Structure formats: structure tokens, C-alpha cells
Amino acid sequence: MQEEEVTGPVLTTLQREFLSTTIEMKSGQIDLLLNKRDELLKSNPNKFKKGTDLGEKERDIVKGKLVNPGQEPNPPSQKPCEGAEGDSSPTELDDNLTSTEVSFCAFRNFGKNEENCRYIKHNLLSPETGIENMIDPCHEYKSLEIAHKLDPERLKSKVASEVLRFACACMNMRSNGTIHFGIMDKIRGKHRHGEIIGVPVRSQVDFVDALDYIERCFKRSNQQRDARSCIKNPHFIEVLDKEASEKTWVIEYDVVPKASIVKDKLFSVGLPKFSEKDNKIKLEEKVPYQRVGANTPRIPDDDLVLFIQSLREKDQQREEAESSSNQTTVECEEDQKRKLSILLTCGKTHMDDSMFYIIVTNKFHTEHLSHMSFLLNMNIFCVFDFDPDSKESGLCGKYKDNAVNLHFLDDYANNGQLKPSDFVDSLQLFERPSWIFCNGRNNFPGGEKPCDEMVWIQNRKKKLKKAVSLICNDILPRQSFVVLFLLMSDIEQPLVETFHEFFAEMEGKDYLAVISESKKNYEKWASFAQVSCGMSSLKEISIVEMPLSHVDTTVQSIQLSKNQPTRTLPVFNGALCFLKSVEEAMLDSLEIISVDQCDNTNVDIMIEEEIQQIERNFYHGGKIKWINFWLSDKQKCGNIIKRDAYNETSTILDRIKQRHKAERPIESVNICHQPGSGGSTVARQILWSWRKKVRCAVVKQSKDITTVCEHAVKLREHDERDKDNCLPVLLLLEDRNADYIDDLRRELGNVIATQKRNPSVLCFILLICNRSNKPEKMCRESSSQTVAVKHQLTNEEKPLFSEKLKQLKLKFEANFILTFVLWNEGFNKSYIEDFVKNLLLKVDHSSLTTRLIRFVALLNNYVEDSYLSVSHCEASLGIATYVERVKYRAFVDQLSDEAQIIFIHLNDESSTHISSIRIIHPKLAEEILTQLSAIVPQSDIAMDLITDKVLINHRFARDELLKFIRDLLIKRSKKSSGDSVDTAFSPLIEHISNEEGDVQKAVDLMKAAYLALGKDPYVAHQLARLLYTKFRFEEALEWAEEAKSLLPLDPFVLDTLGQVYKRWFYHLFDTRTPSPESDIKIISTALKGISAFRASEKSLTKEAVNCCSYYGEVDVGCRLLKFLSEVNVFSNNTGKSELMQYLLTDYIPEDVKKTWQGFHHQLKGLQKSLCNALECISEDLSYFQTNISEEDEKLDARDPEQVYNPKKWLRKKSAVYAELFCIISDECDQAAESDSTDIASQAEGLSPFQRQMRIYKLGGGNFTSILSFLFDKDPQRAGKKLETIIEMYPENLTSYSLEPTELANYIVCQIALNCTLPGSSKLLSLDRLQNLSKRFNTKGKNMSGPSALFLLSLLFWPESGDKLSSAHAQLLLSAIEALQRLFEQKSLNTRRRKLLTHFFLAKPKGLNKFVHKTAIEALVKGNLSERNLKWLGGEVWKNEEVMKLLQRVEGWTENGSLFVKGGTRDGKIRVHPRHSASLPNGNEQVTFYLGFSFDGVVACDIQVME
Fold it and tell me: With bands split at pLDDT 50, 70 and 90, how would you rate the model's confidence at 485?
């Protein structure tokens, strides 16, 4: 019945069937039980009223679990004592007394004055007791809840009456005893018997003076003297009550009737009573008292003779009891070493990094600091330190060899409301221990100052509470950490408050531990801590009176790894050097692999099973760890196979390192691998085997490039004398995009150049390990330094893997080294299909475990590096994880056999350090999902996942799960990222839409995700895209508007609103049936689209990307013009001319005057808006390179050509735009292209607008289109086209007034023509172009655009050795400053994009003094990736032909800026270094190559002058 939790209330309702089938009782027993129960219910029906149901702890009292050691639970006495205060009638529980949880307090140790003893209000003492063995005291309670208010005289008489009566009884019974005042002696109202209530004490003297009645109340002087000897002075025990405004106390009198005092004596006492009538104290008759059970009655006269006769026996028993108690007893000491081990390891055989430790401590004394080595070896998450001097003279200062982050409680306030993962990053919480000064710091100019206890509780307690809550609820999951309290000095309240907070947040004492060398400190601390945790529970988690030196030795003996104050690195001369752990911690963007990596592992305490688990985890599909290599080298487990890719990579590295003279200071080796093919293992094998030859490190994720570069340089130069002769650093970068790698390479190169390092010395090798579904293709593009890793084994690898499999099968079941088995099978598709089919035959498809498999398979198949936290899994399975002290295995135990085969456990691999699971291999996840989705479609699996509130709202790793779900729904596949195909939507959405053929399910899924992700605007944005591609335009419009309401300034969101109208307009255009109504709807939709795109263009903020909405405006505008030309009113022979008249003048045809009334204004502004949009696109492409980041790529709704080849798109659209406005026939165009002799005469007959359209059509309408001629592989053809464009301009430009934009385009055509056909007769001299360009304004409201300012900087830059006139110098300086100002404004509205440098300063004169970038690229040899590498690594500037062509410019650095002389005596021009890190430190004279860009003039290859 105990197992079935049959309590009293349950028993009252039980039926015969339950007792028979569940309890399996016999019928006779059942009849007896039910009859007795029914009789009891009938005889006392009120006994089972509300309030009598026992709580769990009260049931435990009945079972004897929660009483104090040595105390038997006696039933509460309901019989009133003689003279008891209050009503003497029997009482029972008040109906209002509910079965709230109760806690018990231990008695003060009898006969001892314990200054640290305290009671907790409302806790219970064991019931009052009678005589047991004369030594163990009997106990009597008096509440004094009314009497404590009496005046002193009445109070003293009341107390004396109770004490002397009880003492007289104890002396007569020869038994020790204690009478307690402030304890409930009966059940009354909501109070229980034995409940600690405490009473206020006005004066302790009153309770001491109450004993003065001894002389008045006992017979004769000898009895008075004996009573004085036996009755001890009162003990005042403080009652702790968080809600009380005044202190209350329990007052206890001990009675010790020693045999030598009371032998052969009978004691009688006359109790004092205050007579209200006479207003004085009167003494009752002197009578003897005895102890009967828990009561103290007088000895009846009839029994007096027998009682006196029994005294001799009592005296003898007392003497024997005293003799027995005085003998030295050998107590069985608990095994403190074993207890300490269990507390710190949570039941494991040793301590390792699987658990974090939180240390809470007060001041360490000097003698303690030499015994704290065990802390250095612990995986400490944070330290709550209450010693303000800890940094100077305490524990923190002793910890100086280990890097820590110093914090205050304010740092944990998280007032910025950061997400947990962002908060962790901001404080670097998992990088190094966080040392929290909880009571300020001395000798520190900022931050908090120390304060006393009361001020701390008032001002800082709430901060501590917030910090503890944040750590326990948002950062570290339950059961992943132990909180260790070190009581090293006198206890103060703040330390106790910290215990209360952790106890509350961790919901109990599990994973709490206490160490106190001083028993006194512990007892004081425990007396306060018992408010939260009972004394017996505190004892279970405490190590007391164990010397700290013993603690240190004991803990170190169970630590798997010792903290190495130093690790070793190779040096250039072949020796080794030390790297201190504090120095290493400062290089926290790198995971450094030392020569003695893992040598601090205490392999002797590792059991064989643990070693096998490490090995098995790898072969089952886990990520390889350094300990795997180390154990293999120590021959503790089998060798790890080196694949062919390892040998190839190692050969490439050998070739690079052994070159006598390095080709470049920064080399790179690429490992391209199919997901799950072992590429990461190969990369780590390389680092392991090369760690003694070079310095090796892994670049951690989420670290910015500047920091990584700084740390990599420090690692290279550490403890090396000659900075030019250092071992190179081998840096592993995993799954980084090309931009990150390029920027890192450039940053490292700049540092090398700045430090004047020898360019022929190898400094860094980037080992780039990236996933790719087509690694062979990547290998072909850069075969010399790229290695491909595939799933299929080579012929050389197959026998190695086959032999290894045989060895592994001797140790492990094949199912638990599954990834290695699949490798041996070459990841054969049919093998995987059969394996999964057989596996799924055994699963229960309705079970929660199978549901979990579906979720993980879905995430793993579609989202790279996805996982599900163990905490989420347990929540999904409904597993309670609160297991006493031992590290729980509840999750693993609940999994089916099949789930245990396919899941791999990841230990703290996420940024939040939360344990998680994934399916062991991507191929397996794909096949599992495929087969499971035959039963439950993927759309239903995804919907089940997204609508599971338990998972979505689960606290730990919530941000990560929501990110995975977001990627699942909106992240597209891109070949550029290594995916197999390009997709318009996420692969899951495309699968549901195409494979399942159910667009509505995809829509419903995204709607559900929108809500689950907290109304994510980007999900709404993608849903709008999905809907408009399916021609559901009204719904698409709703969701686009919804996204806009959430992100009203985001250009991508606003662009999508325009895209809805654009696609709607296209659809109406393609499916139209000519009618006035249809025409109006089409025009209206198009104009709404243009308005939406314009709103996006005007919304540019710091978060904006580029002018992508201009593309949409041009698309819609050009298509609208085409539509207008086909409308009936404009479709006749003169229609085009009439349409142009309508669009460009005030003319309005009568047929549309009324029907198009709302459109006239917008339509007449169409030409200008299109021209402006094309110019804006051209300007943007002139500033920036055309590559797009991965983040932007997944949000960009533009057409592929607009994204990936915008210059080509711009040329095409410019031609389409011009065609629509151009009235010259196609025949004339063809003639012009074949023979330009007649072009001038044709141009003379054209209006300025028609000439402009003609130039647009020929490709000369904007800066970008003109310069794109320079990329033509046939310069002659490009030159002829440029000549044709130049012919369209008037001959005498000096007297002809051109628009500034037209004039700028003309000058660009001249410069481009000089680059393609240098001897062309159409070319003007530099002087003439300079004179023309003087029309541009560099200041004021009418300042010219960036292309004009760019031309001024180009044309007026002085030739080698020339000095500028004052006017020209001022014009040049003004233009460059204006360019820089414009760019600064534009840069506020752009994400970080790579700037474009168009021209470089060359040595020749005239127009030949500037060379386009294409001319330099032509001098750089190699395939595309090799050429890119040379640009990034700066090798281009070392090319001899380039050096002959370009002019180096002299300048100087000043206060972190770079300048050149500005043509006048005192003038100087600021030059932007293309890469800021390339600037030398300090003020230096430098030389560099000068580039011309839309952000000003820029410097490349900066070199300090010798």
C-alpha cells in the first residue's frame, strides 16, 4: 500500500476491486480492513474533515522519516497539563488548518549554551515526551502567547510556576528535562502541537529573576540549595522569521538532577500564583510533582508512600545512567572522503569537465590560501566572493595564474534585456570564470564599495537574487552544475542569503555542497541556513572539521585533469617554450593545441569502460576530440585511421613549409568535404600531428576578425626573440564563408606589412575546412591546395577500414559504431535504406520517442548543425529529472533501443553549453525522415513541432531551437554555400509545395511558425513571397503589410510589399483581356508597386542593405510603359509619338482624360523616376562590389540576375528604358552600329531628350554601364561602341550646356575609350577634360553627384613630380572632401559591403596616368580562385609588371590617419587606407599605391619608408 501511496484519505474511498487487483490482498484481509474502516468512519465522521489530509512530509513523520535522530515520534498530547495556560478543554484541528508542508527543527543540545543555535518560526519540535532513560531529557512546552504580555511581576510568577512544577517533577523522577517557553503546547487554531512561535522578550532579566522564587517555593534550605543546583539558568534561543518586524525567542530551562544531589530526597514545591483579588503573589501548598507521560501532575496522597519507596530504585537507575553516559563512546565517524567525492562528482568516479562549479565563499585566511589548488583544477563557472580584499590578498589574488573576468552584481542585472546567448557573450561567461565581488572591492577606483550587513541586505540582496536566478534559470541547466559553499571565516548574513537563493532556485539541496574547516563557523551558518533547509539535510551536504589541506588532497585525487599553469609550444630553434594559462586565456578567440595537449589527464583514475565510451562515441558519429588522439597515442585505445585526404593535406603543408622562400606570408589549404564524410576529423588530425612542428589553433566561432587576427599574431610571436623568424601558425577555420576568410587573410596581411615583416617568411597557414555537396568541383577550381573528402572510400582506404571494423566489433556492438559501419559500406544508399527500414519496423509510431525521432530527423535533414537539447527532449517526453544527487540518466533510460542507436549525445558543443542530441549522420537523418514521412508527412511533422508549446516555450536553449525553426522555414539552399541546388524558398517549404503538392499546408505551417516565433516579421515576409508566387495576391498583400507593421523601416520587408504588387501587375498584364476596367486595374496595381518600392528606397536606415527596391521600380516601370504602348488609345500608327507626348508634356488624350484621372500625375513622372532609379542603381554599383552576404541572400526577393549579375541587368534595362522613349527606328540603330560616319548628322537633328535616350540605348547612360565596356574581352569592339556614344554628343561642348550627369557620362566615356583604344581620334586631351569638369560643383546645395566628384579627383590628381596650381589644388581637395562626406552619409545606410576601387595611379602622364583595375587583373596569372588569393594576400603589388606600371606615392601617417601633400605648400589630402589595419603604428613616412574610389582616394600596399 505504501508503494501505491495509499494514504489515510485515500483509504476512506477505496473499493474492493482496487484492493484485490492492484494491492493483491486476500478476500479475508479485504473484509476485515473495510469493516474496520467503516466502523471508524461511523464512530467519528468529523475526523476526516477538510484539513486532516496529511501532506507528504506529515506522512513521513508517521513513517518515522523526518523525526530527529534518536527521537521517536510520539502522538501529540491532547490532554491539558495542570495549570496549563488557556482553555483546558480538549482541542482538535481547526477546519481552517490546511495540510501545508511542515519542517522539523532539532532541539538545542541539552546542557550546552550554544550561541549559534536558532529555531525557525512555524517549524515543529518533536512532541512533548515523558521519561525515557533519565539522561535523554523529557520535554514540556508552554506557548506564553498571551502571558508574555503580562507585567514583569505577573510574568515572573507565571514562568516560575511552570518551571518549578516541571523541575520538581524531574528531580523526583531523577530525569533530565527541558521546559520550553514559546512552543505551542496544544493544537489551537492554525497552530500545531510543538510549533515554534517564539515570544518577544522585553527583558531577559525577568526570566532569570523568575528563579528567585526557588527560595520561597521549596521546603527548607537544603531543598532550595538542591533546586538551585539542578535548575539551570535560562537559554534564549532566537527564532528566525523573515516576515517578523521584531525579534522573538524561545526560552529554555534545563533541569539536571544529578544523583549526588537528589539521592534519597523527595521534593515538594509551593507554586506562586498572582492573586488578582489581593493584587499580590501567593504560594500554593507545597506538594510533590511527578512526570507521567508528557504531563506533570502532583503525586496523589494515596500514592505517596509507594512513590517514596520507589525512589531508591530511581536513584540507582540514575547513578547507572550517569555512569554509562560518562564512559567514552567511540563514535563511528562517517567516511568524509567518500562523502566529499559524492558531493562534488554527483556519484561519478571522478571530476571532469562535464559539470560546472559555482563557488560561494567569504574571506580566506592566509593559512588557507596554500591549500586551494583543488579549485584551480575545477571547471569553475563563477565565484560569488564576499571578500572585498580578495583581489589583493585573498582567493582571487591567489588565482592570478588563471585568467578570470572580474564582475560586480550589477553586471548580472541584464538591464539591456539581452537574450541569454547574447548575455553570455557579453560577459564571456564560458570563456573563463566570472569572479563576482558580491560586497564590492577595496582599492578599486570604480564599481561598488564594501558595506555592512544591513546596507547589503537593503541594497544588494535583490541584485544577488537576480544574478542567481539568471544563472539557474537562463544560463546553466539543472543538474549541470554544483554550488560549493566554502565557509572560511566568520559567517555574515549575506552569505546565508546566497544559500537561501540557490536553495530556492535549485528547488532543494541536491547539487549543493558545503565545506567548513571550523565547526563554530558551520554551526552559526547552519543556524541561519535552516530557514531554507533542515538541519539533517544540511548535515547530508556538509563537510565539517575536515582540514582544508585534507580537502585539497582528497579533491585532487579524484580530478581527471590537473590545471596546467603552463603549457608548451614549439619554437623556431627546435626547442619548447611555456605558455602560461593566464596568457592563453587572453587569446580566447583561439583554441590552442599545445605540444603537451591532454598530458594533464590523470588516466590512472579512468576506468576501462570510460575509455571505451570515448572511443565508441567517435565511431558512432560523435565529433572527434583531442582526448581521442591522446588515448590513441598512449595506446589506451585503437589507432585512428588516416584517410588519403590526411596524407594529401599533410603533403601540401610539407611543401609549403619546406620552401626556402615563401611565395606569400599567408598560405591556405582547403579541405572540402561532404557533410558527414569526416572532413573535420581530417582537419583535426592534421593539427594533432603538426602541433610539434608549428603552432596550431582552432579559430572559435562567433569571434570577430580583428580579435582573431590580434590573437593569432600574439600566438605566432609568443616567446620568440626574432619576430621575423618564428614558426608559422596553422589556423583551422571550420564552415566559414568566403567573406570571413578573405577579411581575415587581409587583416593578417596588413599586420605583417605594418610590422615590416619579411614578405618571404611564412607567417600563417589557414586550414579551411568547409562543407560542400560537390567537393570534387571545388578541388578542380583550385587543385594545387584543395583536398576533397567524400563519403566513398578509396581503394587504398577500404582494407584499412575493413580491418578496423573487425577490431571494433570485438569491443562494441555494430549498432553502436554505426557511422563507422556506414563508412565501410561507402554510405551505400540501398544499405542505408534497408538499415532504416529494419530499424523502423520495431518502433511504435504512436510513441513519444518516435515523435522525438521525427522532430530531430526533420531538423537535422534541413538545418546544418541543428540539434535538440536534452532538456527539450525530457520536456517532450514528460520526464522528471529530479534525481537525488546522482547524475541523471532519465532521458537515456526512457529512449527506445532504436532511438539509442540513432541518437548521438553532444556534450556542451553549443554556445550555451547545453547537452543536446542529433542523429548520428546526415545521410541517416535524411533516410529516416524519408521513411517516417511515408506515414506522417513532413508538413505534419513540422506543424507538430512548431505547435508544441512545451518545446517552443521551454527555457533552456530556446533561442537555438527558435533559430533552427526559423532556418527550417526561411533559409534557402544556395550553390554558393555548398548546397546542391539553388531554391526560391527553404527546402522544406519547397518539398511541401512540390513533393507533397499542398501549398496550403506550407502556408498554414508558416502561419503557425509566425506565431510560434513571436510574430517574426521575416516569416511574414517569406509567407508573402510564397503566396504571390502562387498568385494569391490578396493574402500576400495582407502578410506583406503585417511584416511592414512590425518592421516599418526594413528595406527587405518594404521591398516585398513592392514585389507583391509587381507580381500582381505582371499576372494581370499576362492574363489581361482588353477593357477600360481591366486597364485601370492594371495601371493602378503597377503604380501601387512603384509607390511601395519608392517607400522602401526612402526608408534607408543603419540596418538597410542597398537600393534593391530601385530594381523593382525599374522592372515595373518598364513593363508599365510597354503596357501603355499596347493600350488602344496608343496602339495605332502614331500611338508611340502620342504616348511620348502624353508622358513627357501636359498633353492628355481625351479618351483617358476622365478614366485615368487618378493616374496622370504619376504617369507623367514615370520617365524621371525611371531615370533616377537607374542612376541610383549605377551609383550603388559604383561604390560597392556586387557580392552579397549569406544573411542578405536569404532575404533578398529580387530576381537572380539582379542579385548575382546586376551590371548586366542594368545594361539590359537601360536599353529597354531607352527603347521605350526613343523615336529613332531600329533600322537607324543598326546603321549606326555598322557605320558611325553619319552619326553626327543624325545627332544634330535630335532633341536633347532623344539624344539622351539614344545614348542610353547604346550603353552610355550611366557610369556603371560605361565602365562595363572595359570588361569586354574584345577592346576594339568596346572602343568602337564608345566612339559611337561619344559621336552622339555635340561637337562643341564648351559652348553647349549639358546636364551635369550627361557631362560626367561624356568624360567617363573619354576615359574608358582611352583604356580600350588609346589612339582614337575621338579622344580629348587631359587639359580639355579638366576644363570641362570645372563645371561641376563641389559645395553647396547644387553640389554635383558622386560620379562628377570622382572624376574631379581622378582628373586633377597631380602627375608624378608636378605641382598643382592653387585653384586646381583647392578644387581637388574640395572634391575629395565632398566624396568622403557623401560616403559617410551613405555608409550609415548600408551594411558592411566591400568597396570598389576603379582606377589606380600609373607612371605615364596625361590620360594614361590612371589605369583601370581590369588592366592590372590582366597582368595577374592563374585561375579565378588563385587570382583572388593574390589580390587578398597583396601579392598583386609584388608583381613586377604591376610595379613597373603603377606609381608609388609618398605620404605620412599622423595620429592614426594617412596624408599626402595637397599640391600647395601647406595643403594636405587625407587618403583612406583600403584596409585600416595596414596603417603603421605611430607617425611614419610611407609609400603606397593610390587608388580612386567613390569614397575618395585610397591607399594600397602601404610600406614604411626605410
Answer: very high
